[in-house]
Amino acid sequence: CRVRHYKFNVVTRNTTRLCSSKPIVTVNGRFPGPTLYAREDDNVLIKVVNHVKYNVTIHWHGIRQLRTGWHDGPAYITQCPIQPGQTYTYNFTITGQRGTLLWHAHILWLRATIHGGIVILPKRGVPYPFPKPEKEIVVILGEWWKSDTEAVINQAMQSGLAPNVSDAHTINGHPGPLSPCSSKQGGLKLQVESGKKYMLRIINAALNEELFFKVAGHNLTVVEVDATYTKPFTTDTLLITPGQTTNAILTADRRAGQYLIAASPFMDSPITVDNATATATVHYSGTLSTSATTLTKPPPQNATSIANKFINSLRSLNSKKYPAQVPLKMDHNLLFTVGLGVNPCSTCVNGSRVVAAINNVSFVMPTYSLLQAHYFNKSGVFTTDFPGNPPISFNYSGNPPGTSPANMNTMNGTRLYRLNYNATVQLVLQDTGIIAPENHPVHLHGFNFFQVGRGLGNFSPKNDSKKFNLRDPVERNTIGVPSGGWVAIRFRADNPGVWFLHCHLEVHTTWGLKMAFVVDNGKGPNESLIPPPSDLPTC
Ligand code: C2O
Fold first, then answer.
1. Does residue 502 have its Cβ closer than 6 Å to ligand 1?
2. Which of 151, 327, 368, 459 makes an SS bond possible with 486, Cβ 3.0 to 4.6 Å?
């Protein structure tokens, strides 16, 4: 293994999309930012220098950060922000992971333009558990706003209303060739040769959109998600939520031609935006670039059956070499309701504001880092009384909007849930339909978990747990809680520190759909959090 050094200069750069230019905050002037390459077991050091007017932090989404929570990145959770003019070096070792992940800013809405890919290759000499592709391509899905994203969310928070949606989806930073404002350059043009295989490392870095992904005239074979190998399966459509990653093999089994790649939104209340479908092209060598492109029809935005079919096909590889180590005996059985509600707000447009909560607690961001408060025993920053179950039970998924429960007002608090080192946790995430049922891609920092169950309606401990898959459930770090339904996940708390859990739709995070686990040190020699680095930013 080796040490890899990267330098991330956070700088403003004037960028043109959709026929207009605006200054955006970037890493090294690029949108999307640079890809990090490393092998399993490598030590990665990224020196981040903040040259902009905003506070900044970077999160290495899905990297386990075993005992190195100081380098995880979420602002005020594991560190104070890197202030303008300041520098911080993230330093972590990649342990037991290989595949594709992403990095992104983890403060305000800066993630909109500060993000990029992480490629983790297997250890030298260790092959993939599938035939080696001819080439690997990083494909980053994102969103583009014509206006300033910080202004978009600030305005929403003042009014209490939902923020504006983006003006375009993007593939590798561009709306693509079908956009009326396409620059004709930039974006992804995948050059292939007939008969060869290509691995797409697809990342959903969008702020607020779950996305379908298709290639005209071609199937895709999924081999890995969230940097864990899966049983290969072939599909014509992928579904990727914000924060998720998928490695899929494209076999160039056509003789020639050009084929459209399409990334289109999946959500329950369809939005109509021009540029809703981001596009790119697969180009077979020997084909004239002026030849017609074979198009593909994106799934409708409410294509729940296509989404479910994809999700239900995911299984962990569970081979001898890569066994699925699903915890079987549970120390904690938790049920978290995730959903939206409304709270009174005298200064808001409607006299109320949209909030989001877990078990009716809307999380209040502290002004000091939780991990520092935990490590130095500083009181008054957080409490450890986060409820492991909903305060009241009601028909979570079934209520027509506005009918129940009687008290829809959420509590506010910086409440954490405490776990002993190595405790096993089963967590059922249950969507509520208090305002409207919605999908919630929930991300847990510091761990991978197994998705042992998933269903619609209210979770029934008695009936549903009998059907859990404890043999080869998919292992990941971000999971889509279905609208009006639930997922059950299991993990082992083998990583001491403070670990954020939140909806990866940035608007829901902002509204409070977040909480954190605090995992105490173990007693063994390698079971404690390392001491804080000397350059850790202060608040
Ligand atoms: Cu990718 Cu806490 O986020």
1. yes
2. 459
Give first-to-last CA distance, the chain, whole Å: 35
- Tokens 């092959």 belong to 127
- How confident is the model at residue 402, as a pLDDT? 47
Architecture of domain 1-127: Sandwich (2.60)
Q: Are 167 and 145 in contact (CB under 8 A)?
A: yes
Residue 394 φ then ψ, to 5°: -150, 180
What integer pLDDT is reported at residue 1 of this predicted model?
A: 75
- pTM beyond cutoff 0.90: yes
Give residue limits of the domains in the chain: 1-127, 130-316, 332-519
Equal CATH topology for 1-127 and 130-316: yes
Looking at domain 332-519, its CATH architecture is: Sandwich (2.60)
Q: Give 443 Cα–ligand 1 centroid separation in angstroms.
A: 6
* pLDDT (mean) for 215-225: 98
Residue range 275-311, pLDDT digits in tens: 789 999 999 999 998 999 999 999 998 899 999 999 9
For ligand 1, whether the C-beta of 443 sits within 6 Å is yes
Q: Which numbered atom of ligand 1 lies nearest the CA of 509?
A: 2
Please state the ipTM of this predicted complex: 0.99
Cα 199 to averaged position of ligand 1 atoms, centre (Å): 25
**Nearest protein Cα to ligand 1, atom 3:** 61
Q: Tell me the CATH architecture of domain 130-316.
A: Sandwich (2.60)
Three-state SS annotation for 95-118 = CCCCEEEEEEECCCCHHHCCEEEE
